[in-house]
Give the backbone structure.
Amino acid sequence: MDGKPPSKERQAGNDLPISVRDAATYLGVSVQTVYLWVERKQIPHLRVMGRNIRFLKTDLEAFRDSFKQVVNSGAA
């Protein structure tokens, strides 16, 4: 890397929609759990062409951070 901040093109590329399988891997849960969260409207998601579900990584980061807070507060 050259020490420069990422270009707008690279930043935008980081927020391309990802699949259910990739989201499950990123969150460390099963694909079935992701589908359950989508069904319950507990996780931010996009519907593409009616049935295909996609996620933005920035939304998943916020979701994962809020999930960690709930788990940590429950353990106290």
Remarks:
- The first strand starts at residue 46 and ends at 48.
- The domain at 15-63 is CATH 1.10.1660.10 (Multidrug-efflux Transporter Regulator; Chain: A; Domain 2).
- The chain is about 55% helix and 10% strand.
